[in-house]
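Morning, I've got a small favour to ask if you have a moment. Here's the protein in full, and shout if anything looks odd to you:
***
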Amino acid sequence: MTEETTYRRLREFRDTFREGIGGEPEAAHWSEISQGQILVMTSPKARHQRVAHRLRTQLEPQLAPSLALYVATDLEDPELGVLRVPDMAVVNADFEPTAADAMPPKDCHLLIEVVSLFAPANDYEGKLRDYPAMGIPHYLIVDPRDGTAVHYWAPTTRTGAPAYDNQRHYEFGDTVTVQGWKIDTATLPRYDKDASR
């Protein structure tokens, strides 16, 4: 069975979810697909969304009319067997959705993830593996746990596995520049020490 065939079966199964998981309503969860597995994620909580909102209100006015900012939208590469749901994606405004009504990686310019308290490995490991494999040119991780951000760019397979050639680390208070877009991280709140995402 090919990776794409496995992916399509998992995608069909994912799309059959009609009821919540563990007694919670369906809206409380969404799922991603990577490495032949369905990964069930809880939906972002208010602290996470507050950071995402401040990022969005800074970034969106800077985008050219040919670009759009999508929030929590499926991004899929069936050939790789990957479906991810980035917190934010800068995409071509006129992209054609995939057959499954998702964003195609070739139309993405920047993906942003806001790290959650209890699933940081998803952003720092899983997505840091999948996004360069998908050819995403820029990936920004914003981490309100410790007030840092990392910009990764220039995807490559030079080392034998998909990775980014370049990275730059920031502390909250710095201005992050990606493709000429500027994000002032001084306006981003950190999580409370006792926050539960």
About this structure: Helices lie at 3-15, 46-59, 120-133. The chain has a mean pLDDT of 87. The radius of gyration is 17 Å. The first strand starts at residue 29 and ends at 34.
